[in-house]
């Protein structure tokens, strides 16, 4: 049977040698030309539990893996079905994107393909467009006019967050994002290309603009990316006799009065001190007003820069607004400490769960948990355990947020880390950060590969060649064909 148009699914209804169902079945039960329905695999005994997980980031994959382990027997006998719907066929582990940009980790090693990680689940590469929880139905975004309906019993929302942008003149034309592997690779190539440009031009203004790098937003993404790239660029200019370290200008613009809002204030203060020691121009309580022509900041500063990276915070995934679930302040799904979605009466909304960046999970007395990978992973594990417990008639347990294990890398051999009630800096903090990052990466295979990257990095010198040409793979060939035509 064909998959609905625009949706990539598993091979179809297949069984392994012991008769275990390995993938979901597309049926046309509700099909009337425009409308498909994905039904569960029906079993002779009935009584199946259908779990729909929306979002395959750290929270979604962790929840799915844990549920897969806990429900192995039910999944293999067809008494349970887990379907995970994710827009990409892989998880992107974003805490490692700054190291991808710095060239310390291979881009392929920070993504975890979902299908091999979830052999007992159905993985759909698609986007959910709306959810009607009162009818326990979700819909896959229509492509070619066809809408796919997904019925479920238990909904696990782990759709995370997306970049929060403002209508800044010139931002769309000149800004770069930093959320995907592609963007991390592209930024690395761009920064290295600026060094090549600065070393070969005779125009002092162009040289100055090429060596000025502006990052807007000082969360984990902005601070990590700037710190890693500054470190890499300082290393790279050893091969550029005409560029001195003081020629490089790094500017970090943050609208609030502190950096790393997702981490503890002491940790953020250490990171700020380290960045300033490295001559990074950190501007707090400042906004980007314009990127048209010159960079214009709200404190009145104007200067030329050829690199503008937008990492200014996140907002919950847009899907949340297309559900009938109660949303809290900031647009996140209001949750109880059991990771169950809170109903209007403050009691658990039956069959609805959420975790990660998209969920407002209580963290008294701070309000709700900050959106970071550490929280997403720990919440997802508790969510999965609670879902299994509630389905078995046992009580759910409260999630107890752990805030003291935060850390952030600030380049090779530099980091800030919170441990045992203290903030640490320097090499020890860096080793601790790497150990934590590795432990949290939700794939053993990827852990080994990232570790191998780090070990190779310690043995050999850093790779600092710009591969900007890979972004225009057809340019050379087109030029050659054009020449031939004339
Ligand atoms: C550059 C960068 C660096 C970071 N560094 C750190 C760090 O050092 N430490 C730290 O703790 N945190 C860090 N973070 C934050 C961390 O990455 C997030 O908190 C974490 O990824 C949240 O996980 P999640 O699963 O909740 O959401 P996400 O990782 O956002 O995953 C959600 C998934 O849902 C999918 N999705 C969304 N909508 C739909 C839909 N409608 N249909 C189907 N799928 C959908 C998305 O494609 C996505 O894959 C960083 C973030 C960035 C951007």
TrEMBL record:
Q: Name one GO molecular function term.
A: NADH dehydrogenase activity
* A Pfam family this chain is assigned to: Pyr_redox_2
Q: Superkingdom of this entry's organism?
A: Bacteria
| The FAD/NAD(P)-binding domain, residue ranges | 50-380
- Keyword Oxidoreductase applies: yes
Q: Where is this region: Disordered?
A: 1-20
Q: What is this protein called?
A: NADH dehydrogenase FAD-containing subunit
Family that this chain belongs to? Belongs to the NADH dehydrogenase family.
Going by the UniProt record, its keywords in alphabetical order are:
FAD, Flavoprotein, NAD, Oxidoreductase
